[in-house]
Amino acid sequence: MNLSTNIVVTAVLLLVLSGGLLFPIHSSITELETAIAGLEDSSVVVASPVPERLAEVNHDLEAMQASLDSRGFELCPDTPEARNEMESLLHTEMMEAGLTRISMDRQAGSGTGAFPSFNISLIVEGDAFELHAFLQGLESLKWVTRVLKLEIQPGDVERRIKMQIAVLLENEP
Prior knowledge:
Elements: H1 3-40, H2 42-47, H3 49-70, H4 80-97, E1 100-108, E2 117-126, H5 128-139, E3 145-152, E4 159-168
Antiparallel strand pairs: 1-2, 2-4, 3-4
Helix pairs in contact: 4-5
């Protein structure tokens, strides 16, 4: 065989082999394009539970923000009547929560941030559920309050709880 025959035979063999290889590659590419088109279909994305859960969480977050926005940022007037009303509200919240009052003392506060305050020191007895109910009631009061100190002494069921609560006062003009 001469050189030109070898080149022709080699070229024909390469053409046959490459034709056999290109056909499966072409069909694989076509199948891949079909699979990608199926993934881009909007029904696949909607059927996923992640976007639904994200939408629920976003709705809950918006509802909580609306609730916070509806609550007024109201400071306690710096009057004896308002301070007495606050003590009365605290006493009512303690009773509704089921806590037993041991002592309640009012003290002058040093202020919390930019606002002056007056502090109320409480010593009560109760369990964790009663304390939780009291703190929820404290959060729902109309004036801004801060729990500065919370000390729970060891005990079986009923425990002695010491708290210091700051009630923020209006700044004088």
